[in-house]
Amino acid sequence: MTGTLAEFNQLTNAEEFFAFLSLPYDPKVVQVNRLHILQKFAQLKADIDQQTADPHELLDRYRSALQSAYELFVSSSAPEQKLFKVFQEKAPNVVLLSQITEE
Fold first, then answer.
1. Tens-digit pLDDT profile for residues 75-90
2. How far apart, in whole angstroms, are the C-alpha atoms of residue 11 and residue 53?
3. Is 36 exposed, middle or buried (0-12, 13-18, 19+ CB in 10 A)?
4. 12 alpha-carbon distance from chain centroid
5. Residue 83 in contact with residue 44, Cβ under 8 Å?
6. Kindly report the CA angle at 27 between 85 and 18, in degrees rounded to 5?
């Protein structure tokens, strides 16, 4: 990893983050879990940003954070992680059409 923090801040997609941070990944895992990996990475990155000011240390910690986010979805699923609101909400009450009667 030889890039700068300014270069890192220009990245726009998951594959660019993995390439920039020199992390191996399975494209199939990223394809299926892209938004979830990036959401988890964003959460971890926000914590790092509050704790670390040194740009060189930031990039090393970002690398570890992206690796952790990726590994989470290699062994888990999006519904299990509940990162997005849609997965956090309770299942809606379901009324079957057959249960509705005319009076």
1. 775 555 555 454 445 6
2. 20
3. buried
4. 13
5. no
6. 80
CB 19 within 8 A of CB 27: no
Encode pLDDT of 56-81 as tens digits: 799 999 999 999 999 998 877 555 55
Does pTM surpass 0.90? Answer: no
- Report the distance separating Cα 3 and Cα 37, nearest Å: 21
DSSP symbols for 9-41: TT--SHHHHHHHTT----HHHHHHHHHHHHHHH
The single residue listed with the structure tokens 């983050």 is 17
- What 3-state class would DSSP assign to 18? helix
The rounded distance, in Å, linking the Cα atoms of 42 and 55 is 17
Q: If you ran DSSP here, which 8-state letter would residue 21 be given?
A: T
Angle, helices 55-75 vs 27-51, to 10°: value is: 140
Task: Please give the Cα distance from 86 to 66 (Å, whole number).
Answer: 23
